[in-house]
Design brief:
This protein is an alpha/beta fold. The protein has four domains: about 60-260 and about 280-290, no CATH class; about 295-325, no CATH class; about 340-390, no CATH class; about 400-580, von Willebrand factor, type A domain (Rossmann fold, 3-Layer(aba) Sandwich), CATH 3.40.50.410. Helices cover about 40% and strands about 15% of the residues. The chain is built from 19 helices and 14 strands. The protein has helices spanning about 5-20, 65-70, 75-90, 105-120, 130-150, 155-170, 175-190, 190-195, 205-220, 240-250, 285-290, 290-305, 315-325, 430-450, 480-485, 495-500, 520-535, 545-555, 565-580; strands at about 25-30, 40-45, 50-55, 270, 280, 340-350, 365-370, 375-390, 400-405, 460-465, 465-470, 510-515, 535-540, 560. The strands form four sheets. Strands 11-10-9-12-13-14 form a six-stranded mixed sheet, sandwiched between helices. A three-stranded mixed sheet has the order 1-3-2, covered by helices on one side. The chain has a three-stranded antiparallel sheet with strand order 6-8-7, with no helix packed on it. It starts with a helix and ends in a 5-residue tail after the last helix. Mean pLDDT is about 85; it is low at about 270-280, about 335-345 and about 385-395.
């Protein structure tokens, strides 16, 4: 016989599937000791939903709550509460799936909202930024939950319990929390919801003023879910930054140095310190922010919309995420350095052995087939076949060294003179350096796709006022990427001795890129020739021939000329392809 919790879990799984989240599971766990009576979280990697309950918790446990439940015709308070908090966390993404009615909807929009909130808060209240960003996002989705489900008494019961706990522990409800609940009640609360919650209000004039001002400046209709437009006006994503800024500015005076103890919804909060934010685990947005995909959405969203970089993430992380994303879209014909062969796993059926054409060594003596001639040994027929891809190669591949990447001032210009948009990418998205970076990231992506990146040590040298070099180990290439994303754009001088040290040791595939003359080439070319001859070397010259490229040609080094940014990127990746394919034999 199923327990009450198992019955609720079954119903919620059916509801989750109806909302469109058919992937992932929903699991309810009960514990004798928990941080909260109820908490919920979504894992954005697999969309698993986890709800933790304190054993025996019942959200309806006093007279007022019981009266509320009777009038709302709630037969099971726990089921209603758990159902509504699950819908709430899902609504942060979209409710239902495919409707695009969710807030923040993705990491890009959350980052924009968080940035707007931070800008609106005074310096001594910055520790509240995450809490207030989440409060604004809740303000957008809570009316949607009621609109979609018809009612959301579970959310009201949740706030009632949170404020009851606050009054027991702190003897009061936090001013900003009271304002938050009142704003929600304005947007979608009915008379029963308002009557239950009003017992917790202080009705401080500062709170009333902040609520009225926010309603007025954001033009928030009362009972928005019942208006002709419904909650659609709350999901104008480009307007969220402005709205979040107004919300945070009006709430700022009600905030203290640390976030309130009351939870906005049934997420968990961890790691609170004086003046510090708690780490929130609930809708999965905060967890998603720290992932590669989360950062890529933020960077690509801002770049695509011609916006400046986010103030919430380092410049390196954003540029690295953007170039990763852009490199995957490079239209290059990458051939798999593998061979494919058919392997017979096992026979599906057997037939009688034919002595005229069959190999007697392959007779299945344990299989006997009845024919007109009597019993014959069986012979395999219709084998089960799979396609197997294998890489036959030498023991190691040469390291990849983008050993000479020109980062002089001219590389920050466009090949046609137009460097492109510099709002997000400092050197411009049509500059020579931009296309060189795309090629660098494209080669890395290509090596990963071929399954050989883990065998290769990456290195990069930038030359301008000085020659700088970084290389990776087999654990990662962050140091190399950081150098690539920190160009100098100065003069054009080359230190061949630095490059010689860089190319010592293992054999390397060395690629150089430049767009003009090297100022000190005469003094460096002898050493450069020596190191180039010891490597699998190629050079790409942007624009006209130079003394550097002529000398390379006279030494029988491969030299390629390009006059378009896209051609530079493609040529870099294809040069890597042709080089590394030599080390894989069929």
């Amino acid at each position: 016989m199923k327990t009450k919790t198992q019955e609720i879990e079954q119903k919620l799984n059916q509801e989750k599937n109806r909302l469109g989240l058919v992937n992932g599971t929903l699991k309810i766990n009960e514990y004798d000791e928990t941080e909260h009576n109820v908490s919920a979280s979504i894992d954005p990697k697999n969309w698993n939903i986890k709800i933790d309950l304190r054993t025996g918790f019942n959200p309806i446990h006093d007279k007022r709550q019981s009266a509320y439940a009777r009038k709302k015709k709630i037969s099971d308070g726990l089921e209603v509460l758990v159902s509504d908090i699950a819908s709430h966390e899902i609504a942060h993404w979209q409710l239902p799936y495919g409707s695009e009615k969710g807030c923040p909807y993705d990491t890009y929009n959350h980052d924009k909202i968080l940035e707007a909130v931070k800008s609106a808060l005074p310096s001594d209240k910055q520790g509240n930024a995450g809490y207030m960003a989440n409060a604004f996002e809740d303000l957008m989705i809570n009316p949607r939950c009621k609109e979609y489900k018809g009612d959301s008494p579970g959310q009201t019961l949740f706030w009632d319990n949170e404020m009851s706990l606050a009054r027991e522990k702190e003897k009061r409800v936090s001013p900003v929390y009271e304002a938050f609940v009142k704003l929600n009640m304005h947007l979608f609360g009915d008379n029963l919801d308002k009557a239950l919650l009003k017992r917790h209000y202080s009705n401080d004039k500062r709170i009333e003023q902040a609520v009225r001002k926010t309603i007025s400046e954001l033009n928030l209709p009362e009972n928005i879910h019942l208006t002709q437009e419904g909650t659609s006006m709350l999901f104008n994503k480009p307007d969220w930054s402005r709205m979040a800024g107004i919300f945070a500015k009006n709430m700022a005076d009600l905030l203290e140095s640390s976030p309130p103890s009351e939870r906005l919804s049934a997420y968990s909060q961890e790691g609170q310190g004086q003046g510090q934010e708690k780490k929130q685990t609930g809708n999965g947005i905060e967890q998603k922010l720290g992932t590669r995909d989360g950062k890529e959405k933020i960077a690509y969203g801002r770049y695509s919309n011609r916006e400046r970089q986010s103030t919430n993430i380092t410049s390196y992380e954003q540029l690295d995420a953007l170039y990763r994303r852009l490199a995957r879209a490079i239209p290059v014909n990458v051939e798999a350095m593998t061979r494919e062969q058919s392997l017979n796993i096992s026979p599906l059926t057997f037939r009688a052995f034919d002595k005229e054409k069959d190999d007697i060594a392959k007779i299945k003596t344990s299989k006997l087939i009845l024919t007109d001639q009597g019993l014959e040994f069986g012979y395999a027929k219709e084998p089960l076949t799979v396609q197997s891809r294998s890489k036959i190669q030498r023991k190691s591949f040469p390291d990849f060294k983008l050993v000479v990447l020109d980062n002089s001032g001219s590389m920050a210009q466009g090949i046609n003179g137009n460097k492109g948009n510099t709002q997000f990418i400092p050197w411009g998205d049509n500059s020579k350096y931009h296309y060189a970076l795309l090629g660098f990231y494209g080669i890395e992506n290509f090596l990963q796709m071929q399954g050989i990146s883990q065998y290769i040590n990456h290195g990069l040298s930038l030359f301008s006022n000085q020659t700088r070099y970084k290389e990776s180990d087999y654990q990662g290439i962050d140091a190399v990427r950081k150098l690539a994303l920190a160009p100098e754009f100065g003069n054009t001088n080359l230190d061949a001795k630095t490059l010689t040290r860089a190319l010592s040791g293992r054999e390397s595939f060395a690629l150089s890129i430049s767009d003009g003359e090297i100022g000190n080439w005469d003094s460096e070319k002898a050493d450069f020739k020596n190191l180039a001859e010891k490597s699998y070397f190629a050079h790409i010259q942007i624009g006209r021939k130079t003394q550097f490229s002529r000398d390379l040609e006279s030494w029988n080094m491969p030299v390629f000329y390009v006059n378009k940014g896209e051609d530079l990127t493609k040529l870099m990746v294809n040069t890597a392809l042709s080089t590394y394919k030599k080390f894989t034999r069929e």
